[in-house]
Amino acid sequence: MLLEGKIAIVSGIGPGMGRDISLALATEGADLVLAARTKERLDEVAEEVRALDRRVLCVPTDITDDAQCTALVEAAVAEYGRLDTLVNNAFAQPPFETVEATSMETFRDYFDVNFFGHVALTKAAIPYLKEAGTASIVFINSMSAWRMRPFFGIYTSAKLALHGLAKILAVELGEHGIRVNSVHPGYIWGESVKWFFENQAEERGLSFDEVYEETASQTPLHHLPGSDEIAQSVVFLASDKMSSSITGVSIDVNAGQYMR
Hints:
The chain is α/β, with parallel strands linked by helices. It has 2 domains: 7-187 and 226-253, Rossmann fold; 189-224. It has 9 helices and 7 strands. The protein has helices spanning 17-27, 39-51, 66-80, 104-132, 153-173, 191-204, 208-216, 227-238, 240-243; strands at residues 7-10, 31-36, 56-60, 85-88, 135-140, 178-185, 250-253. Helix 2 links the parallel strand 2 and strand 3 (56-60). Helix 4 runs parallel beside helix 5 (153-173). The longest helix is centred in the middle third of the chain and has 29 residues, at 104-132. The model has no long low-confidence stretch (mean pLDDT 95).
């Protein structure tokens, strides 16, 4: 297994990406620390991890609270004695508004989750990741860092800031054996995208399948990846065997929807 003996923290546990990242890491041998604000979500994913015969610790955490970020990391190390991987997956979807129409309070609130929370959690983890000898930090980013679309002002700004953070951390932490990389999904085939397509179909007088095919046809593979597929790129970046010399990289997992 690629991650046998590794300890990983995954933030933003939920029914989609957080769950699938956790199960992918556990399948490859990692023991996990799961973090999210909702305890029920943590417990549900934890049961699936245990079914894979891996250890798991649930720590309800609001990453916008610096003290809770510190407590999460300290709980992980107290439980397992080490930390090898941090997956920064938490996010909140801001309202779709122009920058002009968005209040500064709204900007700050969503930056707290989508950027500053990741800074706080990463800063708390760095001293322990240094002790591991070889370690990995993975940021789950978005196509919104590359595709400029109206009404995505807060989200795009936060994701571009996160992209910059990953790059500078790769430079600063490389000498300590810590690799820092990002995953940029396109459309993620799951409940939220299905809901969006259903609304599009109703508004435009099309069938659900027509909306899906219209979007999927924009990719060379005519396919919208599910979060379970995207999770495999996180395993790759977490693995010392598979990505030992990869740092400061952004991997686009999007079936070729956009190419850079």
